[in-house]
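Ticket #4471: structure output looks truncated?

Reporter: J.K.
Steps to reproduce: submitted the chain below (417 residues) through the standard prediction queue, then opened the result file.
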Amino acid sequence: MILSRYERMIARRYLLPGKGEAFIFLVASISLVAVMLGVAALVIVMSVMNGFRAELFDKIVGLNGHAVIQPIGGRGLPDWREIANQARATPGVTSALPLIEQPLAATYNGRAEAVLVRGMRIGDIRGNSTIRSKVLMGSLQSITPGSGRIAIGSRLAESLGAQVGSDISLFSPQGQTTPFGTVPRIVSYTVAAIFEIGVYDYDKAYIFMPIEDAQTLLLMGDAAGMVEINTVDPDKVGEILKPLGDKIGGRAVIADWRTMNAQLFEALAVERVAMFTVLSIIILVAVFNILSSLIMLVRAKTRDIAILRTMGATRGSMMRIFIVVGTTIGALGTVAGLVLGFIFLFYRQGVVNFVQLVTGQNLWDPSIRYLTELPSKTDPVEIIVIALMALVFSFLATLYPAWKAASTDPVQVLRYE
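Returned output as attached by the reporter:
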């Protein structure tokens, strides 16, 4: 909107407090702060929700792959090599890794915990960035087939009271058959590394060991429990693996990450939309403050508007002046809200820790929140949408007061002056 020189001067004067107009300026300032808080709240919440989804996706998919090939009945895939080769030959598949996953029980010093034993080829364990970059103590290099060494999660180590070098026992129901029934196997392993992936359930349950040791523990021979698949595009995993599903039909089934975690990601998507809708109302309320402050400004400046009209100011000039005043308040509030939101996100974990210190409450329990830290991921497209929405709402709020100012009849106002 192009303003003439005198229109810019008048708009600037109306934005600054005049004599006897402190209350109007206070209302306008409150409007600016309200827009700022609304925009900041939207930026913070949407970034945290995006961070939740990104962190969960990276950690869950980074550990479990984009899809897994599981046997139909039975305890494993004896022909896993053939299936893995077929998977690697499928266009769009980047890797096919055999693994064994079995829930068992672990004990140490009289403490017992339910665990999830995962057997992988030692090269796959060391090459997995989700595991390799999260080792807190010990080393994955000392874990070799037949060494009796394993890696366990930090929460599991904490609950068992185990350290690197501790010997923990694993109970397997698959044992030797005797005349009195099946005798469970109890095998002792040495903790060689402790990792913290950042997902509470994984750090509380997972135990990694070479696949050969898992086959021996579970009496599986040379079979694998499943084959983990990674693709070039996780969002198109169904299309990519459809030809493979037709080849292995009858022997195994394919379950992708969307199927295995459907409820979790659907809940996050619904909550994300709901939070955006609810917090958008805050900006709408702030915009009504702009509307009320402009109405008060028009009423206070009625005489000035009438004088300007008699001096030749057009109705279009009056409308442009008040539209610019209201939109400027909204724009300043939007910019301030973006800055405040980014500052909060940068110091988000410190803010959480400070509030916990002041209130004495644990606001971020990993067992409830699933992740160990408050995540954040800012989407530039969403930031632009939020800023545009605040500006559009601010502009719409100025139309009625600007129209009222432009409709002022100078004859009626100045009749008795």
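Triage note (M.O.): checked the attachment and the full token line is present. The first strand starts at residue 67 and ends at 71.
Status: closed, working as intended.
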